[in-house]
Write the structure tokens for this entry.
Amino acid sequence: MTENLLDARAVRVQFGGLVAVNDVDFNIPTGSIVALIGPNGAGKTTFFNVLTGLYTPSHGQVDFDGKSVLGVAPHKIAASGMARTFQNIRLFGAMTASENVMVAMHPHLKSGVLSTIVRTPKQRREERDARLMAKELLEFVGIAGVDDEFAKNLPYGDQRRLEVARALALRPKLLLLDEPTAGMNPQESATFTQFVHRVRDQRGVTVLLIEHDMKVVMGVSERITVLEYGSKIAEGTPQDIRSDQRVIEAYLGKSGTEAAK
């Protein structure tokens, strides 16, 4: 096991004349909870998309678990242990909660097409185990009892939790959360902060999140990286970021600094 689970060096993403990510160095220590923050348009989601293989950087290197992921297809990166959620929820609305979670287990299932069609004893046993695992994950994220509910019928907050359950079904080493508390009320956000710690402590999953809610960021993160116009302007502990004058001017402002306390 390497000290850093993820190591990105001099990552640049350029769309024509627009530099969306400007030579960013970034690493995630194994077992940590790290946040990426910054104003809208700072390049946060673009950087996420580089890490997960949706974008190929114009320049730079990204290593995950000791291996380069540049040019690797997103589904192969996911299968290697990097799972993510999206700012806009992307569930299969016409599938049940349990089925949504089971879909993500596919890379770890061994039954082939023929055994699935014939429904061999081994395939039926594997499917039964997958359903039990889905049930356990739904309980873990706090939405027990919704197994047979269609995803589109779940309340917004439960859909957010279902998306996390589906990501955990990939058995990730690294979980990337893009605006996980968007649309949540303050109580739900506070509960989610505790949940992120449980994911790390009980499941051994390293976590990277993009988040605008400064109470969540300061309450959950061990290290925070700040982007502005695609460049890294600060990095450090929550205490460091809270008092960094450049971050206050670029992003937090006086009201944001108060909210982060």
Summary: The mean pLDDT is 88.
